[in-house]
Amino acid sequence: MAGLGNQNNLLCESSNDENDVDDCSATLLDLKALDCPICTDALTTPILQCDNGHISCSTCCNKLRNKCPSCALPNGHIRCRAMERVIKAVIVPCPNVKFGCKQKFSYGEELTHEKECTLSLCSCPARNCKYTGSYKDLYSHFKIHKGERGYSYRFTFGDKFAQVYFELTEYTSVVMKERKDGLLFVVHCFTEPHGVYVTVSCIAPSALEVGEFSCHISTFLEKYNMTFDLPKVKKIQKLNFQTPEEDFMLVPTYFLHGSQALKLRICISKLNQE
Ligand SMILES: [Zn+2]
Ligand SMILES: [Zn+2]
Ligand SMILES: [Zn+2]
Ligand SMILES: [Zn+2]
Fold first, then answer.
1. Cα of 222 to ligand 3 centre, how many Å?
2. Closest ligand (CA of 60)
3. Which of 30, 123, 175, 216 has its CA 20 to 30 A from that of 141?
4. Which domains does the chain have, with CATH numbers?
């Protein structure tokens, strides 16, 4: 056990050229062997097994109420530590290796990293645009959408507010372009029977390097005034068209007075980071 590890180390140490490190690695031809046979997600610790040795991830084990789907024996009481060791020992590169990320991870952990990797690709939030690129390039790419009837607003962090106008029958998202950091934010409306859900997100991976932002939204109608504070703006790599379950402002239907026009005041600020 420990001997194997030492042998590998010895091999690596004996070579001076970094490229030779590959000499002591093995090739696994089928990475799927490291995925949960039930849900096909990458296996992560704890890995569980039934008395017959069928393995599953802990999520599947819970979902199937501790019953092995292959042989119906109880599952969930025995950990498959051998497989857990294998998963840990398989080192894979960040999926963005082709864009220059040099980080490596134990199998499965690269997917967690990918959401934070600053080199992960983001999709342009303009309708019908297929462009994907680094979040740093999105701002300048977005210039090609100038003048399109898709609605975008320019602003600077700390501005009092931007007045954002929606004609909900025509479009449901507008893009706010932050001048100083060159970032794109999207204000997205989802119409549901009882009201309109409004979300504000930043198009970027969730890396710390991007920064953190808060948002203040308000809307008003005659004598009513409604405000909403989002302490942390979500970072997303592409627009999501599913009605959100959290982090939204709900503008009740009666507020719209039967019209499909919605006027919002939006103020996005950059949070100070330690
Ligand atoms: Zn599973
Ligand atoms: Zn079984
Ligand atoms: Zn990476
Ligand atoms: Zn585009």
1. 50
2. 1
3. 216
4. 35-116 (3.30.40.10), 122-270 (2.60.210.10)
